What we know:
The structure holds two protein chains of two kinds.
Chain A: H1 10-18, H2 21-26, H3 33-44, E1 60-67, H4 73-83, H5 101-106, E2 113-120, E3 126-133, H6 141-149, E4 153-159, H7 166-177, E5 181-187, H8 196-206, E6 215-216, H9 225-235, E7 248-257, E8 261-270, E9 272-273, E10 278-281, E11 287-289, E12 292-297, E13 299-303, E14 306-307, E15 311-315, E16 329-332, E17 351-357, H10 363-376, E18 381-387, E19 391-398, H11 401-413, E20 419-421, E21 428-432, E22 437-440, E23 452-467, H12 471-480, E24 484-492, E25 495-503, H13 504-508, H14 511-518, E26 524-534, E27 537-544, E28 547-548, E29 554-557, H15 558-575, E30 583-589, E31 592-599, H16 615-630, E32 632-635, E33 638-641, H17 642-649
Parallel strand pairs in A: 1-3, 1-4, 4-5, 5-6
Antiparallel strand pairs in A: 2-3, 7-8, 7-16, 8-15, 9-14, 10-11, 10-16, 12-13, 12-15, 17-19, 17-20, 18-19, 21-22, 21-23, 23-25, 23-26, 24-25, 27-28, 27-29, 27-30, 30-31, 32-33
Chain B: E1 5-10, H1 31-44, E2 52-59, H2 67-80, E3 83-93, H3 100-109, E4 113-119, H4 123-128, H5 135-147, E5 153-159, H6 166-178, E6 183-188, H7 196-202, H8 211-227, E7 231-234, E8 237-239, H9 247-253, E9 258-261, E10 266-269, E11 272-276, H10 280-288, E12 294-299, H11 302-313, E13 320-321, H12 322-325, H13 331-340, E14 344-347, E15 350-353, H14 355-359, H15 364-368
Parallel strand pairs in B: 1-2, 1-9, 2-3, 3-4, 4-5, 5-6
Antiparallel strand pairs in B: 6-8, 7-8, 10-11, 11-12, 13-15, 14-15
Helix pairs in contact in B: 1-2, 1-10
Amino acid sequence: MRVTPRLITEKQCFQLIRRDPVDLLNQDTTNFGILLTICYVSKIKGIHRQRLNLTDMTQIRNFSIIAHIDHGKSTLADRLIQYTGLVSERDFRNQILDTMDLERERGITIKSQTVTLPYADRSGQEYDLNLIDTPGHVDFSYEVSRSLSSCEGVLLLVDASQGIQAQTLANLYMAMEHDLAIIPVINKIDLPSADVDRVKDEIENELGLDSDQIILCSAKEGTGIEAVFEAIVNRIPPPAGKEDNPLTALIFDAAYDLFRGVIISCRVFDGTLGPGDIIRLMSKGAAYRVEEVGCFCLNKEPRDRLSAGDVGYVIAGIKTVSDTRVGDTITLDGRPAPTALPGFQEAKPVVFSSIYPIASDDYHSLADALEKYKLNDAALTYEKDSSAALGQGFRCGFLGLLHLEIVQQRLEREYDQSFIMTVPSVQYRFTLEDGHCLSVDNPQYYPDPIVIRGSEEPFIQASILIPERYMGAVMKLCLDRRGENSRFTYPSTGRIEIRFDMPLAEVIVDFYDRLKTITQGYGSFDYDFIGYRESDLVKLDILVNGEKVDALSIIVHKDRARDWAVRACDRLKDEIPRHQFKIAIQGAIGGKIISRSTVSPFRKDVTAKCYGGDITRKRKLLEKQKKGKKRMKIVGSVMIPQKAFVAVLKSEDE
Amino acid sequence: MNRPGLYVHVPFCRTKCPYCDFYSVTSLSLVPAWLDALQREVLIYRDRFGSFDSLYLGGGTPTILGSRELTRLMEVLFQDLSFSRDPEITIEANPDDITKEKTALLRDLGFNRISLGVQSLNEKELQFLQRRHSAKQAEEAIEIIQASGYTNLGIDLMYGLPGQDESVWMATLRRILVYNPAHISCYQMTISKGTPFYRMLKQGRIQATGEERERAFFLLTSAYLEENGYVHYEISNFAREEKTMSRHNIKYWRHVPYLGLGPSAHSFLKGLRWWNLRSVDGYCQALDCGRRPVEDRERLTEEQVWLESLFLGFRTREGVKRKLIEGSPNSGSTLREIRSAGLVTLHGDRIIPTREGFILADSLPLLFSH
C-alpha cells in the first residue's frame, strides 16, 4: 500500500476510525495519509489507537490508586494493565510499573509512574484511562499529593483482612482535600483471613463512605476487575477544562533519561501543547522549546499534542531534574496563564546525614555518583562537608528515613559506591544571645553553648492506628520517644487511633520498625509536621582514646543524651577490633564524660612458626586484613571499622 | 650472611605426629624414587643460585634415611651445587634415630649442626604427642651427640600443650638447660587445620589453651631462657650466643635467596618465590618427564616485599628499619603509641620489638600498612 502523507480534517479521521478496520482496508486509503494508516494498523493489532486529539474529554478518566502499604496497589495496577491488553502475556511481569530493582525487591513504589489504559465499556464506548501510580510512603506524601491533584478520582484500596490502616486514612483525607471521587475497593477477598463484612463496616463507619458503593476484588486472582473499570468510567467524572484557555499543566513527576534529558510527567488542565511550543515553568520562569509530547503506554508513545484533560509526558531539552519542580505549572511562553495551579511547594529535606567515601581516594567518584543520581531525584539535596575522622564528604538532605535508605542503597548498588553514613539529624533552630537565629542540621555547626539563648526542634503529629491490645506497648514507645499531648479516638470496636505530638528526631531513627515489631505488624503510622517547639538540646561527642570522632557527634535532647551515649559506647566497644593497646571510648557533653567503655588490648597475636613455607601464606593473610583495614577509618591510632559507624545507628533490640 | 641457603625436604616419617602439618608420607619404599628425582631437580638449579653457605636437611624425618641414602644425597648435592668455604650444615634428627654410629656418619658427611626433635621430657606429654621416643631416649640422644663432639646442637621443644601445667613445662626446660645446648627452639603448640589434633579440637576431645595462658607461657619461657643467658632472637628461637643462631633460618627472615629441593619445598630468588608439589608421586613424575615439579609461583611486588619485611622484621630481635614505616600515614603517632605501650624500643635507625612486642608481632605490621 502506497501511502502519501496528506492532512485530513479531524472530522474525516474521526469517522474513519469509528469504522471497522478491515472494511477500511478494502477502501483506497492512500488519500488519507500516513497518520490514518497508523491509527487503524494499531487498532488491528489491538494496540491502543492513536487518539489524534480527537476524543473529547468525556472519554478521559484520570485516576490514582491509594492504599496503605502492602494492600495490593501494584498488583491491582498489574491486573488493570493486563485486562486492557496493553502488554502481551509474554512481556508481562509482576509489579510492571515498578521499574527499579529496589522497588521490585522491597515491594514498594518509589517513583510515580503513569500509564494510559485503553478501555472499551460494555456498550463499546472507548476511553482513555490514565492511571497515575503514586509512591506509597509518608516520606513521599508531597509527591502523592501532586499526583492526586492530577486526578478526578481515586480507587481507595483496602485489604480484606487488615482493614483500614493509618495510611488509608491519611490518603483518604488527602483525596477529600482534592475533592476527588472516591471508589472504595476491598482487595484480597480470596484470602482465608479475609473478613469482608468487617472491612465493609469499617469503610462505612470509619471513612463514612457508602457501603453499597464498595467493589470487591482480588487483584491476585483477577476477580472483580471489570467492576473496577466500570466504576472508574461511571463514577469518576471526566476532566473539566478548555482547550482554548491558556495552557496550565501540572508537573507531578520528572525523570531523567540519558539520551533525552528530563522527561516531565504532567497533567494538562487547560490549553494544549505540542512540539515546537515554547513552554515556561512558572515557579522558576525558565523557558524551553518542546521537543516531544506523548502518553505513557508502558513505553513512551509520542503524540501530536497534549490537550486539556490529558496526562502524558513532555520532553523539552531540560538538563536536570532539579530544573523542574514537582507541583510547578507549565504554561506557554507566548500566551501565559494568569496564575499558576495552586499548591506548589518545594519538597524540603527533613532528615540530614553526611556521607563519606570509605577510601578517601573515592571522593571524586562519590561526587560523580551523587551528581548523576541527583539528575533523577530532585528531592535529594547535598553540599560538601568534611570531617577530621572521615575526610571529605557530603552533607545530604532527605525527605525522610525511607528516602535516605533508598538513596543509600541506590548509590551503593547502581553507582557502586562504598561510603559511611553518619547518624541522621533533623534541622534544629538556635536563638543566640545576640538575637541571631541559626538553623543547624549538622552537629559540626552546633554553636558555642555559652551564646545559645534558646533552642527548638521540629515536632510532628504522629497518628498511629492499632488494635486495642497493643495500646500499652505503643504508649510506652511514644512516651519513651518524648511523645506528648496524647489523644485517642476509637474509630471502631477493638481499634484505636493514638495521636501524639512527637519530636521528629525521635521518629527518624527506627521508630516505624519498632512500632511494627511491638504491634506484630498490625500498627500503622503516619505523620504531619506541626512546627518547631522549644527544647533542651545538647551536643554529644564520642571520644576514642581522647580524640573526638566528629562524625559520631549528635545534637540530642538533654534527657536522651545519656542513653544514647551509653548505647553508642557499647556498640563501638563491640565493633572496634582489639588493638595492641587499651582503647577508651567515651561519651561527652562539653568536657563532661557521661559514659565510657573499653576495648581490652590483644593478649597474644603471633604464630609460632615462620619458615620458608609459611611466609607466602602469612603475607596473604596480612593482605586480606590490610584490605579490611582499608575499609576502616583511623582516629588517632585507633582503627574504626565502617560497621562500627553503622552499629551506632541501630536501635536497641537489634 | 647474604649468600643463598639450600633446603632439602625429606618427606618421610615412620609414623605421623598428630600435631604436625609439614608434608610427609610413611611409605619408605618411595625413598629411592625420591632420591632419583632429587638428583634431577638439582641439575635444574645448578647454576642459578651461586654458592650456598647453609644447607638444611628438614622434613619429615631426615634421620630416617640409611647411611647409603644419606651418603648418596650428600654426594648429589655437593657434586652439582657449589658451597662456600665454611657452610652451616644442619640435619633435623629424631632422638630414636640417634646412635653413636649414626652420629659418626653425620659427622663424616659434613653435618656440623643437629636440630634434635625432643619436644618434651615428660613421658605423658610424649605419649600425647605420639612421639616415638621416651624422655630417657631423648636425653641419651643429647648425650651421644655431645659426646661425639657436636657443639652446635639445637633442641626443639613444644609448650602450651592442651591442659599443660606451667610447672611441667618448666621442668622440661630446666632439664634441657643442664645440657647447655647452643640453640633451643620453643614452639608454642599450634593446632593447624587438617591435623588429627584439629579434628580432636573440633570434637571437643582436647581444649585450646587460650590467649591468656598462651601469653603467660610465652613470657615465662622468654624470661627464663634469657635469665639463663640465651638470646631470644626470634619468636620461637633462642641462641646461646650470636654465632649459634641458625644461619639458615635467618635467611628466610631477611629475604636472602634460598633454594628448596624436594616435595613442598619453597624457594626464593630475586623477588620470585615458588614452591614444589606437595606430593612425592607428583614430584617424581614431574621430574621424570623433565618438568619442574613446581606447584605455583609468585613474583612479589614492591609492596609485598615491604609487607613481608615488616612482618618478618617484627618477629626478630633485629626488628625493622625505621625508614620502612616512614611512608605510612600516622606512622609517627602509631610508633609513639606502641613505644609507650612497651611493645617496641628504638635502637638507632631500627625499631626493635620487646618481649611484649613479640607476643603481638602479627598485629604490628597492619598498624603501618596503608
